[in-house]
Amino acid sequence: MEQTQKIKRTFRELFGASPLIFRAPGRINLIGEHTDYNQGWVLPAAIDKAIYLAIERREDDSIHLFSDDYSEHFETRAGELRRSGKLWPDYILGVVEQFLKDGHSLGGFNIAFGGDIPLGAGLSSSAALECATATALSSLFDLPYSRLDLALKAQAAENEFVGVKCGLMDQYASIFGKKGHLIKLDCASREHDYVPFAASDLRIVLFDTQVKHSLASSAYNRRREECEAGVGLVKEHHPGVSSLRDVSETMLRQYVKPHDETVYQRCSYVVGEMNRLQEACEHLEENNFRQFGQCMFETHYGLKNQYEVSCFELDLLVEMVETRPDVFGARMMGGGFGGCTINLVRAEAAESLAAEIAGIYHEATGMRLAAYFVSIEDGAGCVTASHA
Ligand code: ADP
Ligand code: MG
C-alpha cells in the first residue's frame, strides 16, 4: 500500500498523470537447489517484497523510464532500443524486445518504478522487475499472452538482453505466486501444483551474508557441465536417459562412480535433492515442519560437501542455528558462494535470534548481517483497482 502510493506520487510528479500500477514480487526457494537445469522440481514461493511499477501510454513512440530507488532517468524509442549496458533499464527493455520480436507494435510509454527487494541478495529483484514490466506492458497494450508466456518472456529478456543465463524458476514464481502456498514447479513440463504452507507459528527468515564470491558464475557453468557428463556416462548403458531426472543413485554408482568421483558426487547430490524435495512435500502434507526442516539441513550439507557450492559465511550461518530448538531448518539458498541462508524459525523467537546471530556473524567476519523476515504472497498483478 505504502509502496503503491509512493510510486504513484513519483509518477505524478514526473509525468503529471494518473498511472496504472503493477506489482511483481521477489521469491524464495524452500528446497530444490540446482535441480532446475537438471529437469527436476523446485519449491519456490513469491514473497511480500516486490517491485512496484507505474505505467501509462504516451502519444509518441518514445520510452521514458525512471528508477525511483536510483533516481535515474533513461530514454529510448521502441523503434531503436538502446542498451544501457547491464544496468537497470536493460531488465525493462529486454522485455520490450521480446514483445517486439513477436511482431507486436508497442507504442511509447512512461514508467516509474521502485521497490523493497534487496538487490543482488538472491531474492530475484531482477526477475521481479522483468515480470512487473511484462505484466504491465501486456495489460497496457492488450497483448494475448498467458501467464506462462509472460514468465517465459521475462526469462528470455534476462537470458538474451541482459545476458544472464538463468533458469525459469525466478520468473515463474514471481508470476504464479499464491498467498500461503509454495509452488511445486516441474521444470521439465513447466507445470506446477500449489502446496499449502500452513506454518502460522513459524517465520521464514533470511540471513544475508552480504558476500558474493567471484567463483559463482564459473562454478555454476562447471556444475552444469559435470551434470551433463554424468548423464552422458549413464546414457551409454541406458539410451533413454536424457537428464538426471531419469537417473537413480544405483545407476550413478554403477556407471559414473568408477569413472569420475567428482562427477559422481555432483550427480549424486542432484538425484538425492530431487528425492528429498518429494519427501519434503510429503512432510508438508502432514504439517510436519520439523521433518521438513531436516530436509533443508540435508540439502545444505549436500550443497556443501557433494556439490561444493557453499562458502565459509553460509556454512557459519547454518552451523550457528543448527542446534537451536527454535530453528526447524536452514540452508544456503540460490546458486551459492554467497547470498542468503533461508531459515524456518519459531515465530516468537525470530527477532531475538536474528539479533543474536548478527552479533556472532559480525564478530566472526567483521561484516554486518542483514536479516529479512518474509511472508508468502500472491504473484504479479495490477494493484491500481484495489488501492486507487
Ligand atoms: P537479484 O536478482 O538476486 O536481486 P541481480 O543482480 O540479478 O540480483 O539483479 C539486480 C539488478 O536488478 C540491479 O542491479 C538492478 O539493475 C536491477 N534492479 C532490481 N531491483 C531494482 C530496483 N528496485 N530499482 C532499480 N533497479 C533494480
Ligand atoms: Mg537476478
UniProtKB/TrEMBL annotation:
InterPro entries: Galactokinase, Galactokinase_CS, GalKase_N, GHMP_kinase_C_dom, GHMP_kinase_C_sf, GHMP_kinase_N_dom, GHMP_knse_ATP-bd_CS, Mevalonate/galactokinase. Belongs to the GHMP kinase family. GalK subfamily. PANTHER family: GALACTOKINASE-RELATED, MEVALONATE KINASE/GALACTOKINASE. Residues 10-56 form the Galactokinase N-terminal domain. Its EC number is 2.7.1.6. This is Galactokinase. One of its GO terms (molecular function) is ATP binding. GO terms for biological process: galactose metabolic process. Pfam families: GalKase_gal_bdg, GHMP_kinases_C, GHMP_kinases_N. NCBIfam families: gal_kin (TIGR00131). Keywords: ATP-binding, Carbohydrate metabolism, Cytoplasm, Galactose metabolism, Kinase, Magnesium, Metal-binding, Nucleotide-binding, Transferase. Residues 284-357 form the GHMP kinase C-terminal domain. Residues 91-178 form the GHMP kinase N-terminal domain. PROSITE patterns: GALACTOKINASE, GHMP_KINASES_ATP. GO terms for cellular component: cytosol. Gene3D superfamilies: 3.30.230.10, GHMP kinase, C-terminal domain. It is an enzyme of class 2 (transferase).
